Each structure stands twice: as C-alpha cells, then as structure tokens.
Amino acid sequence: MELLQLLVGGIAQGCVYGLIALGFVLIYKATEMVNFAQGDLMMLGSFVALTLIGTIGMNYWLGLLVAALAMAAFGYLLDAAVLRRIIGQPQFAVVILTISIGFLFRSFAGFVWGHETQNFPETPFTNRIINAGGVILSLEHLSIICGTIILACLLYLFFNYTRLGNAMQASSQNQLAAYYMGIPVKHINSLIWALSAVVATIAGVLFAPVSLVDPGNGFYGIKAFAAAVIGGFGSLLGTVLGGLIIGVSETLAARYLPPGFKEIVAYLIMLGVLVLRPHGLFSTMQRKKV
User: Fold this and answer.
1) Could you give the CA distance from residue 235 to residue 244 in angstroms, rounded to a whole number?
2) pLDDT tens, 70-104?
3) Per-domain residue ranges for the chain?
4) Rounded CA gap, 128 and 136, in Å?
5) For residues 115 and 49, is the Cβ–Cβ distance under 8 A?
6) What pLDDT score was predicted for residue 288?
C-alpha cells in the first residue's frame, strides 16, 4: 500500500517535470534554442494565477484560463521583442541569455509578490482524498496526473490535426523550406513560445497547491531539463516519460535511500543516459530534409 501511494506521488511530481520539459522540447524543435527560463515561466504563471484567484477572487477555472492567456501573450512578446534578435548567434549566447532572463524573472517575482513562500488558494481538489481499497490517494495528485494526460492528448491532436500545428511541425523540420511555402516562420516561432508558456502555466497551477508558490520554484526547470535529456529532445512523449522517471525515482529515493540522494538522483540518471544513449531513451534520430 505504501509503495502504491509513493508511486502516485512520484508520478504526479514527474508529470510536472514532464510538462515543464515539454516547453523545452517545443522551443528546441522549432528554433534549436534551449530555454533555461522555462521553469521561471512556470513560476510566473503560478504567481499570476495566485493573484487572479487569491487576490482578485476569480473562479479557479476562469483564473487558470486568464493566467494561461496572459502568459501566452507574454511568451509571444518575449520571443518577438528579445529572443528573435539573437537567432543565428552561437548557442552559448542563447544559453547565457535565457539563464539571465530566468534570474530577472525570479527577481521580478520577488519584488512584486515578495520572497516568502505563499499558499495557493483552495481549489476544487484541496484536502480531498479517495480511499481506493485502503490506498489513500490525494485528489491534488490525481488532478496533476489527469491534467497531464489531457494536455498531452490535446497537444497530440493539435500538432497532427490542425493547420497551425502542421505549420509548426513544418517550421521545426526546415525553416527555410517552410518560409518558401508561405509559412510565416517568425510568427510561428513566437506562437510556439506562447504555447510553451501556456503549458508551463498549467503545470505551475496544477502543482502550486502541493509545492506552494515561491520565486525559487523556477529552479524546477533544472530537473525538467534533465527529464528532457533523459527522454530525448526529439520526442514529446519521451520527454513526459523522462519526467515520470525522475519523479518516481526521487520519491523512492527519499523513502528508501540515505538523505541527500533525492536531490541528486535526477542528475545521476541523466549522466547514465548521456553515457549509454546520448540522444535520450525514447528519441528517434531524424535528419532534417533540405
């Protein structure tokens, strides 16, 4: 029974890592840019939702929707005004810029909302449990798992059955060819940043009742990056699975291994994957057609 409860908690934690990592992969596939501020977009989204739901008093679902739309606009403008300017520059410059942006986001959040950890307002899942044959399951954890499944299915349908999703895939495969076919590549790239901000916001709001809201939550992006590496940057599904591997491993390490192992287990797994399968466990090698 204890093991099953640990697994549910680990899967819920891993779903959050997987959702953040999806943003890494979406942006990388489109622009070959690694956004180390992805975790901080999640943190900002959770603070925006906290303001809308806790301070203004919006309904939970409406507040989640408005926060996601606000962060989508922010992600679009961030790419259009800042990140688009450095496309074509060395990867080192891109990495330093996104890391710097992450620090700016954390400082901004601390200035506006304070550096203290804050409780997220009550949600439809707060303090509710399910007794499944003697196993006590938290609805907060189950909501994270269900939300991840629903969002992953919606992304699959979007990328495979909509014109905009097909345009995004075409742009990620070959931007020059997409441009010659009449696809507005710059606009599409900005929309991908908007989409990644939406995914990060949903992850932040789902996880906020469990983790609380704190400017330091942006550092979850480091674990999410490890999830993307483990799953493979070329695979959206593999990225989520990489997050699940880390989440379950951390939970089991915290329970059964000596203190301290929980904090390093993600990086140990990432190191092992990089040595044995550098492209990730679930990636498939694809060559861009020119």
Assistant:
1) 14
2) 999 999 999 999 988 887 777 788 889 999 999 99
3) 13-118+139-276
4) 10
5) no
6) 43
